[in-house]
């Protein structure tokens, strides 16, 4: 047998093996596809729900009230720092370099402390907001799961993840209505330092 004949025989065997494996895989895939239930998909506009839900609006109002309280407290601190800075500028010519540097460092420490306070308060506000909004998210997921069971949806997709869908499959209004009925308000925990 020549090299050419061996190569042709080998190529024939490989081609036969590929066709056999392809046919087998095709049959397995077809069997799996027949066993799967048809997909029934709905979608929601989750951002609209978080924007329009009565509980979410209440959360934003409560957070804003906490923020306003913090800002009024910080305004007093900022005014004290401005007064301290002006006094330091006024005393610059009157004090020795060493005394002035010590007062300047003390002032800079006070400014840094005030900045840390602002950052801490912002983190506390963010944590309170996140905890409250998580309650809304949990309720949305429960409502969607209940609706899926009742209406036979296999999948519920967020609107931003789909390119096209018929409006019939949009369950945003129903989810929002149930959310407003089941969770009309969420009490936001007062912002506090993280427990250690």
Concise account of the structure shown:
Helix content is 73%, strand content 4%. The chain has 196 residues and is mainly alpha-helical. Helix 2 (46-52) runs parallel beside helix 5, helix 3 (54-91) packs antiparallel against helix 4 (97-151) and helix 4 (97-151) packs across helix 5 (172-182).
**Approximately how much beta-strand content do the residues carry?**
under 5%
Q: Share of helix among residues? A: over 70%
Q: In terms of structural class, how would the helical and strand content be classed?
A: mainly alpha
Largest sheet: 2 strands, parallel
What is the CATH topology classification name of the largest domain?
Protein Binding, DinI Protein, Chain A
Low-confidence stretches: none
Shape: elongated
Q: How far apart lie the N and C ends?
A: 82 Å
Please give the domain count: 2
CATH H level of the largest domain: which superfamily? Skp domain
Beta strand count? 2
